[in-house]
Amino acid sequence: MARTLIIADIHANLAALEAVLAAAESFDEVWNLGDTVGYGPDPISVCERVDALKPAVWLAGNHDLAATGDLSLGAFNQSAAEAAVWTSDQLPDRWRNQLRDLPTSGATEIASFAHGSVRDPIWEYVLTEESALACLSATTTGLVVVGHSHVALRASIDIRRQRVSLARSEAGTLLNIGGDRWLINPGSVGQPRDGDPRAAYALLDRKAARVSFHRVPYDIARTQR
Predict the structure, then answer these.
(1) Strands 199-205 and 163-168, sheet pairing
(2) Residues 150, 9: contact at Cβ < 8 Å?
(3) Model confidence pLDDT, tens digit, residues 103-131
(4) Neighbour tally for 209: CB within 10 Å
(5) 185 in helix, strand or coil?
(6) How far is 207 from 169, CA to CA, in rounded Å?
(7) 14-59: pLDDT as tens digits
(8) Measured between alpha carbons, how far is 116 from 39 in angstroms, rounded to an integer?
(9) Strand order in 57-58's β-sheet?
(10) Residue 173 contacts residue 149 (beta carbons within 8 Å)
C-alpha cells in the first residue's frame, strides 16, 4: 500500500475526524497539517486519536500555538481567542507541550508542508494565484501541501511562464500529479469554510502519483452539543 491520508484543521472536532478515518478506510501514512485543536469541544480526545495514528507529518497551526500560550491572542478575533483560552484550560501539560514542540513547516523528498504557507507557515492564507506561486517558487518538491484556509483547492504552475492556475477542489476531484508541480489544500476536517459542511480530506496515492479530494458527512449536532 502507498496511500497517504492528508488532513488539516481538525479543530478538536472528534466526530468529524472519526468520520474521515472511517471513510478513508485504508492508508499507511498520515500527514496532519495543523490546527488540531481550537474551536471544537474535544481537544484531548482529538490529540489522543491523532497521536495514535503516528502521523509522518504533524504540524502546529496558529490555533494550536494560541492554546499553548505561544501566540498572542491579540491577533485573533474574540470567538477564536475565547476558544483558545478554553482549550488551554482543558489541555493537560502533556498535550500542551507536544503541540508546542511541533514544527509549523517541513519537507521530505516528495513534498513540502506548511500550516499556512511556505513563506509564512503560521498566518498566511494561500487563496490566490500570487500566494500559490510564492509557495511553489520557494520550494523544489513536486508537491506543496498547506492547510489554514479551510478551503479545499489545488494549484499548478507553468514553470516557463511563472504562472499559476488555482481552483477549488470539489469532492471527487482527481489530480494526476506525476511530472507536474502542484500545491494542494485538503480542506478542513472540523470546520470547512467553502460552502460544503462535510468534513474534508485528501488521499495521495504515491505509487500512482494521484491525489483525490473527498468529503464525508458527520454528526454536526454531536459537535455542537
Answers:
(1) unpaired
(2) yes
(3) 999 999 999 999 999 999 999 999 999 99
(4) 17
(5) strand
(6) 21
(7) 999 999 999 998 899 999 999 999 999 999 999 999 999 999 999 9
(8) 18
(9) 57-58, 29-32, 3-7, 199-205, 210-216, 174-176
(10) no
Q: What percent of the chain has pLDDT over 90?
A: 90
Secondary structure of 17-76 as H, E, C letters = HHHHHHHHCCCCEEEECCCCCCCCCCHHHHHHHHHHCCCCEECCCHHHHHHCCCCCHHHC
Let me know: does 197 contact 191? Beta carbons within 8 Å.
no
DSSP 140-161: -SSEEEE-SS---EEEEEETTT
CA distance 188 to 104: 17
Whether the model pTM is above 0.70: yes
Those residues with Cβ within 8 angstroms of residue 65's Cβ, 6 or more apart along the chain or in another chain: 71, 99, 100, 104, 122
Helices 93-101 and 43-52: crossing angle in degrees, nearest 10, is 60
Alpha-carbon distance of 65 to 76, in angstroms, equals 12
Query: Residue 127 has what DSSP assignment?
Result: -
**How long, in residues, is the chain?**
225
CB atoms within 10 A of CB 38: 28
Q: Which domains occur in the chain, in start order? A: 3-224 (3.60.21.10)
Closest CA to 10 of 57, 83, 64: 64
Percent helix, strand and coil across the chain, each rounded to 5?
Answer: 30, 25, 45
